[in-house]
Specification:
single chain, 140 residues, mainly alpha, 434 Repressor (Amino-terminal Domain), two-stranded antiparallel ribbon, 2 strands, 56% helix
């Protein structure tokens, strides 16, 4: 069975299409189309996107996009914790980079609100006056 990348490149060339035309028609960025055609799977954003791009591009070229994705899964995709590739370029899953931007934004907003609350309390506070009231006299 021919390599996935070779099938895509050959089908595009046989159809007389250039990458710019395919990019405009499929809305897949040219750098990803070139990565698909050269088998540079690690250049794709993530496994889910790689499969979606592959299916869309294959269908666009008149190939069976689902069959291409199944072939990709068998050859290149990770299975659980163990890698089962038959290629030197398996797709790598994305790693988490810690807190997301949304979580950082929420923490910053909370800190700002708490800071404004504390500033408001200290600015509006008046000195505490101690008033001494004499106790009533006990006359027996």
């Amino acid at each position: 069975m021919p390599e996935i990348a070779d099938q895509l490149r050959t089908a595009r060339e046989n159809a007389g299409l250039d990458i710019a035309t395919v990019e405009a028609d499929t809305k897949i960025r040219g750098k990803y189309l070139r990565a698909l055609e050269s088998g540079e799977w690690e250049a794709l954003p993530e496994p889910t996107s790689a499969k979606a791009f592959l299916r869309t591009y294959g269908d666009y070229l008149g190939l069976d996009g689902r069959a291409l994705v199944e072939n990709f899964k068998l050859r290149y995709e990770y299975t659980g914790d163990l890698q089962a590739p038959t290629s030197a370029n398996p797709v790598r899953p994305r790693r988490s980079r810690g807190l997301s931007r949304g979580a950082i934004a929420v923490v910053l907003v909370i800190l700002i609100i708490v800071g404004l609350f504390l500033i408001g309390r200290s600015a509006g506070a008046s000195p505490v006056a101690l008033v001494v009231v004499p106790a009533p006299a006990l006359n027996a």
